[in-house]
Amino acid sequence: MRSIWNGAISFGLVSIPIKLVNATENHSIHFRQIHLADGGRIRYRKVCELDEEEVSGGEIGKAYEDADGTMIPITDEDLAQLPLPTAKTIEIVAFVPADEIDPLQMDAAYYLSANGVPAAKPYTLLREALKRSNKVAVAKYALRGRERLGMLRVVDDVIAMHGLLWPDEIRAPEGVAPDSDVTVRDAELDLADALMDTLGEVDMDSLHDDYREAVEELIAAKASGEAVQPSESKDSGGGKVIDLIAALESSVRAAKKSRGEGEGEAESEEDMADVHPIKKKTQQKSAPRKSTPKSTGTKKSTASTAKKTTQKKTTSKSTSSAASSKGTSSANSAKKQTSSGSRSTTKKKTAAPRKRASA
After folding, report:
1. What 3-state DSSP class applies to 40?
2. What are the phi and psi torsion angles at 188 (to 5°)?
3. 137 burial class (0-12, 13-18, 19+ CB within 10 angstroms)?
4. SS3 category, 234
5. Do the beta carbons of residue 41 and residue 124 sit within 8 Å?
6. The pLDDT of residue 261
7. Of 91, 158, 159, 348, which sits with the fewest C-beta atoms within 10 Å of its C-beta?
8. Within a 10 A sphere around the Cβ of 195, how many other Cβ atoms?
9. How far apart are CA 11 and CA 154, in angstroms?
10. What pLDDT does 321 receive?
11. Nearest to 125 by CA among 2, 20, 13, 1
12. What's the rounded Cα separation, in Å, for the pair 1 and 125?
C-alpha cells in the first residue's frame, strides 16, 4: 500500500519512524457530467477572474480571503516555518480507556507502518503496551495543512490511527429529540426486545452495498443495449401513522419467517384451531345429559332418539305401515281410556281407607 505521509511517533523520549497508509477505500460509483444534447462531457476549467484565461495547476497558489474581500497570499514556505511540533510527528499526549472516546469524534482511519528495520523494536513495544493496558493513545498530528487529533489502537498486529474531530467541532443535539413527551408502555418495550432478539447478531463481513450492485447491473445492461426493467420499490411506510404494537408483532413474525423459524409451530396451531377445540366442546356438552338423573331428561332423550330412528326408516316401510298406524292409534286411544279408568278406580279405592281412618 502506498504511504501518504512519513513521520514518527513521539512516545516520550522514544521516536518511532512510521509511514501513514489509508486504512479505508471508497467503492462508490462516480458519474461524469455530460451535455444532454450531444453527449459531450462537461469539464471544469480554472480561469482567472482578472484576465479570463485558463491557468494550470502550477500557477495556482493559496490565499486567505479577508472580511473586506482582500486576498492574503499564504505559501507552503510560510506554513513550514510555523513553530508546530507535530508537523512531522504524531505526538502522544495521553493514554485513556477506549470508552472515553465519543464515537461522534471518529473520522478517517489509517494504518501506521514501521518505517525501516530500526523502527521494528520500538513499534512492537508500543503495540504490546497498548494491548496489555487495554487503553488507547490520544495524539496530535499535522496533515494537509492543519493540526489534527488522533486515537491510536491495536488492530490485529498493527497500530491503527483514527482521526478525531476536535471537541468543539461536535455540535450539541439541540432541537433534535421529539418536542412532546412520549410514554412507552412495557408491552411495547417487550415486543421491541423480542424483535431485537429475533434479528440477533450479524456477520459484518456478509454485509454489502446492494445499491452499488444495482447501479453496476444498470450500467452493464445499458452498455449492452438491453432494456432496463423498472424494479418495484417496497413501501417503507414513512410518514404514516401506524399501530406500534401491530407493527412490532408483524416485524417479529417477518424476522422469524426470514430466518426459517416458527413455520412448523404456526401450522400446528392452525390445525389445532380447526379441529381439536370443536371435538372437546361437543364432548363437554353431551356428558352432562348422560349423567342427569331426572326423568324429564330421559324422556326427552328417548323421544329424540325415536324421532331420529323414525327419520332413518325407508319410505317403503312408512307407506306400508300407514294403514296399520291408524288401527294402532285407535288401539292406543282405547288403552289410554282403559288406563285412565283404571287410574280413577285405583284412586277411589285408595281414597276409601283414608276416609275410614279419619272416621
Report:
1. coil
2. -70, -40
3. buried
4. coil
5. no
6. 65
7. 348
8. 19
9. 15
10. 44
11. 13
12. 23
pLDDT for residue 203: 84
Q: Output the pLDDT for position 242.
A: 62
Say if pTM beats, i.e. exceeds, 0.90: no
Low-confidence ranges of the chain (pLDDT < 50): 241, 266-359
Which alpha helices (DSSP H) does the chain contain, by range?
A: 76-80, 120-133, 186-199, 210-223, 244-258, 263-274, 276-291, 295-312, 315-320, 322-358
Pick the closest to residue 10 from 124, 147, 139, 154 (CA basis): 139
Evaluate whether 48 touches 59 at the Cβ level (below 8 Å).
Answer: no
Cell of 212: 452499488
User: What are the CA-CA distances from residue 177 to residues 172, 240, 281, 327 (Å)?
Assistant: 11, 19, 54, 95
DSSP 3-state helix, strand, coil percentages of the chain (rounded to 5)?
45, 20, 30
Q: pLDDT value at position 12?
A: 85
Identity (one letter) of the amino acid at 288? P
Per the CB < 8 A criterion, the answer to whether 153 and 160 are in contact is yes
Please give the biggest Cα pair distance in the chain. Answer: 154
160-190 burial code (b ≥16 CB/10 A, e <16): bbbbbeeeeeeeeeeeeeeeeeeeeeeeeee
